Amino acid sequence: MNDILPDATPRWQQLEAVTRAILAAYGYREIRTPVLERTELFARAIGEVTDIVEKEMYTFDDRNGDNLTLRPEATAGMVRAGLTHGLLYNQVQRLWCAGPMFRHERPQKGRYRQFHQIDVEAYGLPGPDIDAELIVMGARIWKRLGIQPLELQINSLGTPEARAAYRTKLVDYLRRHEQKLDEDSQRRLGRNPLRVLDSKDPGTREIVAQAPNLLDHLDQASRAHFAALRALLADAGVAYVVNPRLVRGLDYYSRTVFEWVTTRLGAQDAVCSGGRYDGLVAQLGGRPASAIGFAMGVERLVALMEEGEVPMPDAAPHAYLVRVGERAERAGFQLAEKLRDALPQLRLVMDCSGGSFSSQLKRADKSGARIALVLGENEAQAEQVGFKPLRNNAEQVTLPWDAVVPRLAPWLE
Ligand code: ATP
Ligand code: MG
Hints:
The chain is an alpha+beta fold. The protein has 2 domains: 9-158 and 218-307, Bira Bifunctional Protein, Domain 2 (BirA Bifunctional Protein, domain 2, 2-Layer Sandwich); 319-407, 3-Layer(aba) Sandwich (Rossmann fold). It is 39% helix and 20% strand. The strands form 3 sheets. The chain has an 8-stranded mixed β-sheet with strand order 1-5-6-11-10-9-7-8. A 5-stranded mixed β-sheet has the order 13-12-14-15-16, sandwiched between helices. Strand 3 (58-61) and strand 4 (67-70) form a beta hairpin. Helix 1 (9-25) packs antiparallel against helix 5 (128-145). The protein starts with 8 loop residues before the first helix and ends in a 5-residue tail after the last helix. Bound molecules: adenosine-5'-triphosphate and magnesium ion. Adenosine-5'-triphosphate (ATP) is lined by residues 73, 103, 105, 110-112, 115, 117, 268, 270-273, 295, 297, 299-300.
């Protein structure tokens, strides 16, 4: 679990601001759900036979003996909230939810135990146009963040029925090569065989390369849905590769799955993954409702922004107020508030550490401020202030207080 220090937070804020703006522009609204939910919710929504539920959740009994879990992802809580408040039945909802998620994983670069996601979901929309909307919206976010191109992988899982027939064929095939599969895959073969397809073990991958292809087993309607999605992506100029090994193991998934991957972060290559889960709302006790969404991994995106050439937003103060002497300290305090009233976007730091002009000016310089406002006893008495540009060799000038606002304004970009 990481501390995100003040030098790093501007990058996070930049990512959040860009993402929020784009989500709002597409009509998505924010929902905030608790970080704790009943464990049972995740067992049902994510599936008992998944890495997350089998071994990654932070689960405990509270003082009443209720079994609770720190959310490992956001979708389950959003659907639970939607059902609790009647947001999903016969309605269209475009929603997003951001915040920390918790998984007890083996920590490594790009993989943490508390990490952050921005999760985007659309409910009540069965057509391929919403699948395409979510994907092109992602592409727009990456572009505006200045991230190097990501690879978009897409696949279709068809309907649960079509998949069940495929699963039988897949298991037949894999059983014939069982000895050559890695241990995890052997275990999954019995319980969640589709997951064998996305194994990272080289030996297993060789076997999987020859396995029956899910895309050859799609039902007619899913085939049409996938074709329509591909056409919309082509219209939007969003490049993709079809990866038939991109899967989710659970029955409530249907049709579209997608993932944005990078080659620049080592083994942790997925920065965003999503898919359609038309069966989940009913599985959690609601009336059936179409659903599709994706989750962005914020740490991994921030890492990509770091190594791109996106300039860090400037968080340094515009102005730094130096006050020397008792009268100047008092008058300066008032001046600072007047300036903040007049210029709401002004970043003004008031020196409160005391000391001589030169020691305060040193701190002004170190703060990165562009302007020092210098107030001594004489200036305070005359309601004037020294206006000293710090980033070039311009002369300090003395201004009456009411001339400071117009003088500062052009420095606020
Ligand atoms: P991975 O294959 O890397 O374990 P996942 O399939 O478990 O990913 P999802 O549950 O689909 O990941 O979560 C969506 C995104 O959240 C991932 O693409 C990734 O960017 C990010 N993510 C998942 N787990 C972590 C983690 N432990 N630390 C940091 N980011 C994570
Ligand atoms: Mg994982």
